[in-house]
């Protein structure tokens, strides 16, 4: 018996542990909190009596009217294996819908096929629900076999083509975030600079010229005076590299945005060696590079009318007899010299190289994203990124982060902290005052962008969840930043499309 007039199914990766109950799906329902919550809709077509019983059972549960509360009920086996009901606010936002769907599907006891019904009023809300569900279904299965969600059937109402487009867009966006999660969770023994280099070659071969790829090996980096990448990567058996990906923006691109990502595949601290506890999760120090890579891929997939270049500054910061020393002086592509007084402040060195090369192409704006400082976590916590740079770009990125449901906050770049980067023997040193360390990192990067409008996003905390899972966010890599960056690009495209009408 069909349970709905219209439905849509999206499939995920099939590398899962077989589930003996896979043929019997799990029903996930969202209900808005009210004095008398009502479960109804296409999921209960032919099962109206079951809906009535569930409505009574929900009201008997503690905190049933508190958003986020989940209750599990037995239902007729021909309907589902079991039912999970989750409470929504009376007027849920897009973030509420995304979080609720992800929270329900993130449960460890949810696997196999899932039937999903949540209230929505438009395609934007449906997209948030499907995106949250696909983020919640994420399981790190590369090195651990565990039951997975194999398919999600979404009960829908409305115009079929618009519904299919909304679901496809949500799936692609969530897939990009989940790819970032996979890369961030991958240990440095697998994901090293050579791995990133191989990914770029695969992209070059498989994107049908939609994304053009250029790479710099060690010889190329030396030729362009990329002292940051050369120095940071000197201690590793895997040579550093710089990778440039470009989506040209179609026939009539509306502007050019350069994205720069920090790609330290493992950060031991080098000569300024981290303490043992500080080494934990340092596989995640390449989250910025993974984020800009997936953003440019997503821009190409959407045929976005904006030229996007993504620069991946990739190296491994290791300690060895060939490693960069404290007190070394390196030369950057813009001619400035840097005294390395802290080899564990390496991210800003590789970013500086990439920023110098990116601004040579005269983009309309450049945005770098990096797990740059522990001071970011101290200042803003583990879920909120810090934004620094030119006011107009920072404001636009902040607006995009709010629209995308990713927490970020603008921070200043006080001139009085700049003097802490002064060096007696070079143009500047790479580490300054311990107070306001996030801001000092931003001030260092400012030296390498010239007059180009610029925003620096410090994602040291938001990129990797070391605490308990929450909402659609698991432990480990989060995929933070993809939604903000793609929303920023979408806003540019929308403003450009609206400009002719405004000028008439």
Automatic annotation (TrEMBL):
Mn(2+) 1 binds at residues 267, 344, 346. Pfam families: Peptidase_M17. Residues 342-349 form the Cytosol aminopeptidase domain. CDD domains: Peptidase_M17. Keywords: Aminopeptidase, Cytoplasm, Hydrolase, Manganese, Metal-binding, Protease. GO terms for cellular component: cytoplasm. Its cofactor is Mn(2+). One of its GO terms (biological process) is proteolysis. One of its GO terms (molecular function) is manganese ion binding. It comes from the Bacteria. InterPro entries: Leucine_aapep/pepB, Macro_dom-like, Peptidase_M17_C, Peptidase_M17_leu_NH2_pept. Binds 2 manganese ions per subunit. The keyword Lipoprotein does not apply. It catalyses: Release of an N-terminal amino acid, Xaa-|-Yaa-, in which Xaa is preferably Leu, but may be other amino acids including Pro although not Arg or Lys, and Yaa may be Pro. Amino acid amides and methyl esters are also readily hydrolyzed, but rates on arylamides are exceedingly low; Release of an N-terminal amino acid, preferentially leucine, but not glutamic or aspartic acids. The keyword Manganese applies. It is found in: Cytoplasm. Its EC number is 3.4.11.1, 3.4.11.10. Mn(2+) 2 binds at residues 262, 267, 285, 346. The active site is at residues 274, 348. Belongs to the peptidase M17 family. Presumably involved in the processing and regular turnover of intracellular proteins. Catalyzes the removal of unsubstituted N-terminal amino acids from various peptides. NCBIfam families: PRK00913.1-2 (NF002073). This is Probable cytosol aminopeptidase. It comes from Actinobaculum suis. The gene is pepA.
